[in-house]
Amino acid sequence: MPSLPPWVPGTAWWPWKSMASPGAPRPSPVSWRTGSRPAMMSVSWWVVLMVCPSAVASGRINGEAVVFLLDTGATDVAIPAELAEKLGLARGAPILLQTANGQTTGYRTVLDSLSLGDIVLRDVRAIVAPGFDGEQILLGMSALKQLEFTQRAGTLVLRQHATDRP
To answer: How many whole angstroms from its chain centre is CA 120?
Structure first.
């Protein structure tokens, strides 16, 4: 196991390389908190991921297990329509989407909860995207903007401060 960068206290590594092939198991992220519970301002939850060309992470939407692909270029969390149906997500107002493959129509929705390790987000804006195939959900900025994230020396750290926790 590689040594940890000195700026990341008490971290654990997520074994990205073992997940490189399609269908490979994706372990849950390793999480921990820092600080003490009574001093709420000093408590934060961390999820540390090892960076790879396809940043894929296991998580949950409304309590159901899903696989996220971290995408800082996506405005919102984007969910393939077939998967959204399995998750029981309602299709809201239609919205015109500009994708790499051109324009298409998607549907607004709100996720009651989205979790990645011990990080939990509530009422996250998302898009149900017909024509977006696969089982991976794009974890876009509607979720990521609620977190502090840093990528350095091959490690991606997502951090949620206690004051931001639902």
So the answer is: 10
Domain count, the chain: 1
* Owning domain of residue 126: 16-164
Q: Could you tell me the sign of the dihedral formed by the alpha carbons of 166, 16, 137, 145, in that order?
A: positive
CATH code, domain carrying 69: 2.40.70.10
Does residue 143 sit within a domain?
yes
β-bridge partners, 152? 155
In eight-state DSSP terms, residue 18 is: G
pTM over 0.85: no
3 in a structural domain: no
Taking only Cα atoms into account, the Rg of the chain, rounded to an integer number of angstroms, comes to 16
Distance (Å, whole) CA 164 – CA 156: 20
Return the H-helix or E-strand segment holding 144.
helix 141-144
pLDDT digits (tens, 9 = 90+) for 25-53: 454 555 545 554 433 344 455 565 554 55
